[in-house]
Amino acid sequence: MTNKRETLTERLRGNLSGWKETVEEILKEDIFDEKGVVDADFALSILKSVNEAMSFAETAVNALLRMLGGSEAAPSKKKEDAGAKWTVEEILKKCELRDNVLYLPKIQLNKKAYQAVKTWIEEAGGQWSTKQQGFTFDFDAKRVCGMLLQGKRCNLKQEFQYFGTPDAVADLAVAKFSSLTVVTSVLEPSAGRGALVRAIRRRCPKAVVDCFELMPENVEFLRKEPGANVVGSDFAECVRSYDRIIANPPFSNNQDIDHVYRMWDHLNAGGEMSVIVSQHWKFASERKCEEFRKWLGDVGAETEDVDGGAFKESGTTVATTLLFIKKNRQ
Asked: In the chain, fewer beta carbons within 10 Å around the N or the C end?
């Protein structure tokens, strides 16, 4: 080995040693500043250095191949650009779920496709985590990610019409009840993640509320919620009656009207029900809505409109109405 080659060998070894030490030091640092915001300069410096190192590595490998008489390796950019034409479904099929974190494929994606993938994952309940460098879920994500990894859309809000009840609205609904005690039987037929259950227990701390909930991910939360007794998934399977019924049912296609009728059928004589519904029935000319307006008058329902912005934190600005109905004793 000539002196020049010996010098180059030592220089290469020194560069690798320096890189290793630098990486070890980086791992000891926090990427967030004192305000909890990502230190952009630090992050960009790391990315720039890594990019330069990768470029150097590619150049070095090609130089070695030329010296050995082989052909140069394909530029890494072509590999990075391989995902530029992938569809949303193709990208999702190449994602990986590990420890309840969904990781995107390590390849350069075009901006439009990435935004679409991000939307699909967020619809399924995922949230981007800079720390994890992946999408995290606050529930067991196996079911929803199983669908995503097959290239299928999983829009939880659309599928289950789930918009959690804000505390202020939940407390307003509970306040309508004339009384609540530990012996009062209470039903929540579309319990979500237990917002109305918590409101019931703010008024009566030892109350137990029977719950129905279709969305499996919400059931996971309900089973951990104090005072929530999950008795089934579909309210249509309910077989008993209750003294108090409180609910925020799905609105689409007049589902809220169907739920109100069903709740009435499961309300004991002398019982009370407090239900959050849409305002569509108030002005719609559909026969179903006209009959519902008449029925509400017949049973002496009280109505109170809720501000359209009350559900903004839950992802909707739809205006709602609170129905309070008491079933007279026969």
From this structure: C
The predicted pLDDT at position 174 comes to: 96
Q: Which residue's structure tokens are 């630098």?
A: 22
Opening angle at CA 93, ends 91 and 97, nearest 5:
105
Q: Are 281 and 252 in contact (CB under 8 A)?
A: no
The SS3 assignment for 177 reads coil
Gyration radius of the chain over CA positions:
29
pLDDT at residue 223 greater than cutoff 90? yes
Domains in the chain with CATH codes: 3-77 (no CATH), 82-154 (no CATH), 167-326 (3.40.50.150)
- What are 302's strand-pairing partners? 324
d(CA 195, CA 169): 10
Q: Which residues pair with 304 in a beta bridge?
A: 322
Q: Which residue has the tokens 């501000």?
A: 307
- Judge residue 91's burial from the number of C-beta atoms within 10 Å of its C-beta, 0-12 exposed, 13-18 middle, 19 or more buried: buried
pLDDT mean over 50-79: 63
How far apart, in whole angstroms, are the C-alpha atoms of residue 180 and residue 272? 11
Q: What number of CA atoms fall less than 13 Å from residue 57's CA on the CB side? A: 9
pLDDT at 268: 96
